Amino acid sequence: MSSKKTLFDKVWDSHVVQHIENGPDVLFIDRHMVHEVTSPVAFLGLKNRGINVLHPEKTFATADHNTPTINQHLPVEDPLSANQLKALEENAAAHGISYWGLGHEKNGIVHVVGPEYGITQPGATIVCGDSHTSTHGAFGAIAFGIGTSEVEMVLATQCIMQAKPKSMRINVEGSLSKGVTPKDVALYIISQLTTSGATGYFVEYAGQVFRDMTMEGRMTVCNLSIEMGARGGMIAPDTKTFEYVKGREFSPKSATLEKATAYWETLYTDEGAEFDKEITFNAADIEPMITYGTNPGMGIGITNDIPTADAVEGGEATYKKSLQYMNFNEGDSMMGKAIDFVFLGSCTNGRIEDFRAFTSIVKGRKKADNVTAWLVPGSHQVEAAIKEEGLLAILHESGFELREPGCSACLAMNDDKIPAGKYAVSTSNRNFEGRQGPGSRTLLASPLVAAAAAVTGKVTDPRKLMVIETV
Description:
Blueprint: H1 7-13, E1 16-19, E2 25-28, E3 31-34, H2 40-49, E4 59-62, H3 79-95, E5 98-100, H4 110-116, E6 125-128, E7 142-145, H5 148-157, E8 159-162, E9 166-173, H6 182-193, E10 201-206, H7 208-212, H8 215-223, E11 232-234, H9 239-245, H10 254-264, E12 277-282, E13 289-291, E14 299-301, H11 316-326, E15 341-344, H12 346-349, H13 352-362, E16 372-375, H14 380-388, H15 391-397, E17 423-426, E18 441-444, H16 447-456
Parallel strand pairs: 3-4, 3-6, 4-5, 6-7, 9-10, 9-12, 10-11, 15-16, 15-17, 17-18
Antiparallel strand pairs: 1-2, 2-8, 13-14
Helix pairs in contact: 2-5, 6-8, 13-16
């Protein structure tokens, strides 16, 4: 067996507590993120068995899915949401877990606040009862979503039983063109691989495009790994990573930081290490993307037409059913299609860079009268930055309002629901039938595409609205 190891191998192997022959590995978990949706039953399981959380100091809880994004100072009206939020607060208190609920300065989307406060670190294993935990892989961590029974297992033992996935490397070489964002890179890859193209694999993203990306851009890409079927995605940490992590509340300090950094610098794929599968794309082939169907793989460059059934993989009947739900036709151009809502936010695109990008397009323009826009920061830290950088004033001048932090219309588990039959250009991660509300129709896109739609009232190529200095 080759002594050369991939980044994934290095992190995984260093966390194996026990290998079960012809079975899974028992994997130690460094950080366990908890929110209100998948944790109540897990905590109930602990209570029924008389078990405490083994490592409350490695467990972090925040409320995000059920939180309203307006009037957060008032009691939550929906009884189910209120009960889940209350349960998380009580369970966190009972087990001595850090809890950032509504009104707490650190409250926000779990995959936004984790990196912000230095909970997310290179070489760590991170789990959460949420599929988009893969976001944290941007730091060179192994991060993946788990189910409720697994949440209970980690709470009780700080370990999880997992079969080691196969490895895949996706390279994107070259430089991105004007108006092409990390979200477009991710949607392009998914459109090429389909939503099942990485099933059974843990993906490492490599190549010039990812080296050039900011940490927030890398988080967006890794966030969407799950949408092509991958167990997770990761990017080798580098100087950008180390600088991002340094100085945050839960990051290593002083001599501990020096020791940690020395280890982090070893986290890269060895020259000659082998992957089970490797794919390379050319950055020049990627343009601003938009989805037209009911899964994230049904995406095209914004200037392209909707493909015909014979040009896509999968069953013709399923494909046509998807177009019927969206009320689109084969061969339609996406450009110019009228939209009703724009959603900027989620764990995919609710960070400050996303608001900067959105604001760069709407500055000096007005929100289209036919558009309802929900601009939702991923955390109070993002909300504060929007105000401090003067972005809020620009947004207000253009007719936009800022909501309070939360998952919002990503999955409509709160009051932010897109009405049936309405079209939403969304910067979130999933466009399944009814994902953003029963009967809603979702077009996934980048913050730039969302901004262009918000000021024109229709699907618009953002490059036509960009000033020459905008990248």
